[in-house]
Amino acid sequence: MSALQYISGFGNHFATEAVEGALPEGRNSPQQVSHGLYAEQLSGSAFTAPRHENLRSWLYRIRPSVLHGQFSIIDKGLIRSQPFDEEPASPNQMRWNPLTFPDEPTDFVQGLVTFAGAESYGRGSVVHLYAANRSMTDRFFYNADGDFLFVPQQGRLLLRTEFGAIELAPGEIAVVPRGVRYQVVVPDGTARGYVCENLGAPFHLPQLGPIGANGLANARDFEYPLASFEKVDGSFKLLAKFQGNLWQADLAHSPLDVVAWHGNYAPYKYDLSRFNVINTVSFDHCDPSIFTVLTSPSELPGIANIDFVIFPPRWLVAQDTFRPPYYHRNCMSEYMGLIYGVYDAKEDGFVPGGGSLHNQMSAHGPDTNTFVRASTTELKPVYLDNTLAFMFESSLVYKPTRFAATSQLLQKDYMSCWKNLPVNFNESANARSIQRA
Questions:
Q1: Which of 53, 289, 388, 400 could form a disulfide with 404, with the two C-beta atoms 3.0–4.6 Å apart?
Q2: Rg (CA), the chain
Q3: For residue 24, is the peptide bond before it cis, meaning its omega torsion is within 30 degrees of 0?
Q4: Which CATH architecture describes the domain 275-417?
Q5: Residues with Cβ < 8 Å from 432, sequence gap 6 or more?
Q6: How many CB atoms sit inside 10 A of residue 116's CB?
């Protein structure tokens, strides 16, 4: 892929044009737009949302988006959406092997597989995985149900969107807001990864609190595409994910014909290597929330609809401390994936492209070998390298799909990783114990 150019800064109001003079000056929708273009607004929030939460962009395009055939419902494959009622929510710890690449030609939409979903009125999230071996050439896609957070694990993606193109490699993420039309190109022939579908409030940068002005993900490191377009006639299909179903309509032209745009509702990317990790320099653990890249808030302050959290390369220097993640139970539900390397709490069985699910209050933590080694190792500064894990964390409970619950990818023996944990307790003679009836 040739290098693309981007505009930096999270959530800013941007203005970009592929043809000089295409952006109108002073008026969003003049009586006649220059170059014979059509003005069209794409709104990601209610018109009356407060100014700091109002999301919209003006698009100046060759043809308006209304020009397409009638939609008809088509087979949605393994894509699932609300209500998630195929399988009951489970308190069991679950872990999966990676998706295998298909034998038949399969593009991104065809290769999208839903593993779990969390739902509530007005919000929720869905965990999808994808495995594709061909590009979308004559098909375009948009999601009316939620935003897509792309987390590539193997193989690059080129997201050709209405707003411009985004190059994406493992170690980077991208967010495509609901309603935006795009194609997914697979430059390396195959691509695999994760998608978090956000059904609630758009992602924000988390508040920094006592950290202050700097740290975690910096706004300047988020990149938005410069306007670019194609003026192509032909026979195309427009796919829509709408209310959990997949729909299709005929198109006689490419919908990627936006010559200029301005606004704050647009797809963006972020390089996870730019995340400024904050951690302890004395003893004990900081809470894992300190690794939050993006958050989707809920109606309750401090309770996230989704947090996107990463565990990247970093220094470990804590003294008199069990350094891997500790055993814990949590009021949040955690779907975890691995982009590359080894996760420091699970050195066996948790592999790149795989995933695990620990729902609300389901106990989890280091496997036996990790616990024994970390309890006895010499504590000196160590740089934890060759690792990039992530977590989709929600205040709601994730329900697995039937595919996830019955697939051969599900590791039936996952819980055995804890079965040999030793009992090291030495009871003293005067210990107080609970009396049995």
A1: 400
A2: 23
A3: no
A4: Sandwich (2.60)
A5: none
A6: 28
φ, ψ dihedrals at 300, nearest 5°: -110, 120
Q: What does the alpha-carbon distance between residue 317 and residue 382 come to, in Å, rounded to a whole number?
A: 7
Residue-wise pLDDT for 394-415, tens only, equals: 999 999 999 999 999 999 999 9
Per-domain boundaries in the chain: 6-272, 275-417
3-state helix, strand, coil in the chain (%, to 5): 10, 40, 50
Q: Quote the CA–CA distance of 368 and 79 in Å, as a whole number.
A: 36
Contact 267, 175 (CB under 8 A): yes
Core vs surface per residue 322-344: b (16+ CB within 10 A) or e: bbbbeeeeeebbbbbbbbebbbb
Neighbours of 73 (CB within 10 A): 11
208 in Cβ contact with 179 (< 8 Å) = no
Fold of 6-272: Jelly Rolls (2.60.120)
- Where is 185: in which H helix or E strand? strand 182-185
Q: Is residue 163 within 8 Å of residue 227, measured between CB atoms? A: yes
With cut-offs at 50, 70 and 90, classify the pLDDT of residue 436. Answer: confident
**In the predicted model, what is the mean pLDDT of residues 332-338?**
97
φ and ψ of 349, to 5 deg: 90, -25
Catalytic residues: 285
Q: Is the pLDDT of residue 262 over 60?
A: yes
CA neighbours within 13 Å on the CB side: how many for 339?
A: 26
What pTM does this model have?
0.96
Residue in the structure block whose two tokens are 């969107």: 161
Residues with Cβ within 8 Å of 405's Cβ and at least 6 positions away in sequence, in order, are 86, 87, 90
pLDDT above 80 (res 3): no
